[in-house]
Each structure stands twice: as structure tokens, then as C-alpha cells.
Write a structure and sequence with these properties.
By secondary structure, the chain is an alpha+beta fold. It is built from ten helices and seven strands. The relative contact order is 0.15.
Length: about 240
């Protein structure tokens, strides 16, 4: 009985180790490295060793794949977020609905979701979300954030993610193609790197608030009242 128990424990540990090794290999292939216990991009780790460069917010531009709000809204918010980040989930599920009701739906603000994955699972989730049609994209993000603990801690994350997508009309075969799309992965990593180099983004969630009077960067999930005050000042100007 004891020997059987030891075998079960050994098999479990071996599975965990192999899973972590596979995860680490994937991340290294995508340009991620371990630095002081955190997963960062290689260029980010190199930049940390050099002098901090001045921010270059004016030259940060990204092709928005999905926009929440009217295209001519005077204030634009870029949300740099990882689908595996708990604070990102809090913002998206608790703060964004208030923001949408008070500013986005009436045409004063538009929000652009900028993928900033922190691990393999959040990268896969981001790539899968990109396959959603415009009218389902932000709803699908909400589903992924709500179920974050389930797929984020699972050894079968890809299967769970495919299941969520299937409910939205994406077949498992289509989901796999989405999560294996190198062009999408490269685009996500490119935008992520530009955000780090030009905006100094190092953590999720972070925000770039852009309007005619200039850019403002917020690191961390803001209190809604503070965010509302910043937006109102930009609208006044």
C-alpha cells in the first residue's frame, strides 16, 4: 500500500516537472525569460540592466484589433492586460462596466484592449480571443476573466479554452489553429515590446490614456473615481 502511494506521488511530481519544463521551453521560444522569479521578455530583461530611457508615448501606435466604443471618441484608453492576471480581471469585471455606462456608451471614451500576456496560458487565451468576431470579442474576454482560476491553473488549459470558444461558435479544430497562429503571436509580442520600450509598461494592468492634450500612463488597477477624475479633466481640455 505504501509503495503504491509513493508511486502515485512520484508520478504526480514527474507530471508537474514535465509540465513546467514544457511551459518554460514555450516561453523561451517566444522570447520570454525568467528574471528574479518573474517572466519577462528578453529585451525587457536587457533593458533593465541599462539606464532608463525617457518615455516615448507620442510614437506608440498599435493597430487596434477590437475597439470598445465609438471611433471618434475624444479620449482613448489602451488597456495593457493579461488574461491570466487577477487584478486585470478585477478591472475588466468590476470597473469597466461602470466606465462603459458612464463614458464609453455615450461616445466620450473608447477602449482598446492591448494583450500583455504573462505566461503560456494567457498567451494562448489572447490568441484564441483574437479569433472572435467583433461583436463577441469583449464578451469573450469577460468569460475568460470570469473563468480565470479554472483554465489558469489547469493542466488542460488548452482544452478548457477550446470549450469556452466552442460555446461561441468556434470549433475545437478552429480553436487549435487560432492558438497555433505564429503571426498573431508575433503581433502580440511586438505590441508588448513596444509598450515596454516606449511607455515603460512593466506590469498588468497598465493604461495609456490619450487625448488631444497629451498622454497619461497609469500603472496598476485604478480606483474608478480616480480614473473618472482623469477622464473628466481630459474632456474639459
Amino acid at each position: 500500500m505504501f509503495e503504491k502511494f509513493i508511486k502515485i506521488i512520484s508520478r504526480t511530481l514527474a507530471t508537474v516537472i514535465m509540465f513546467l519544463l514544457a511551459d518554460s521551453f514555450y516561453l523561451s521560444q517566444k522570447g520570454f525569460v525568467w528574471s528574479d522569479g518573474n517572466i519577462v521578455l528578453l529585451k525587457s530583461a536587457q533593458a533593465a540592466e541599462a539606464d532608463q530611457k525617457p518615455l516615448d508615448t507620442a510614437n506608440f501606435n498599435m493597430k487596434p484589433h477590437h475597439v470598445l466604443g465609438k471611433s471618434d471618441a475624444p479620449v482613448t484608453i489602451y488597456e495593457f492586460s493579461s488574461l491570466g492576471c487577477t487584478h486585470c480581471a478585477d478591472f475588466h469585471l468590476d470597473t469597466l462596466p461602470k466606465l462603459q455606462e458612464e463614458f464609453i456608451d455615450i461616445g466620450k471614451v473608447k477602449l482598446i484592449f492591448a494583450d500583455f500576456p504573462i505566461d503560456k496560458r494567457s498567451m494562448q487565451a489572447a490568441m484564441l480571443a483574437r479569433c472572435m468576431p467583433e461583436n463577441k470579442y469583449f464578451d469573450f474576454l469577460a468569460i475568460l476573466f470570469k473563468k480565470q482560476m479554472s483554465w489558469g491553473l489547469s493542466f488542460k488549459a488548452e482544452k478548457l479554452l477550446s470549450g469556452y470558444a466552442e460555446v461561441e461558435g468556434i470549433t475545437p479544430e478552429e480553436a487549435k489553429v487560432c492558438m497555433d497562429n505564429k503571426d498573431v503571436a508575433n503581433d502580440i509580442i511586438y505590441v508588448r515590446q513596444q509598450a515596454m520600450e516606449k511607455l515603460g509598461i512593466r506590469a498588468t494592468p497598465s493604461f495609456l490614456i490619450r487625448s488631444a492634450d497629451g498622454d497619461e500612463i497609469i500603472s496598476g488597477a485604478p480606483d474608478y473615481n480616480d480614473l473618472k477624475e482623469i477622464i473628466n479633466k481630459k474632456l474639459e481640455n
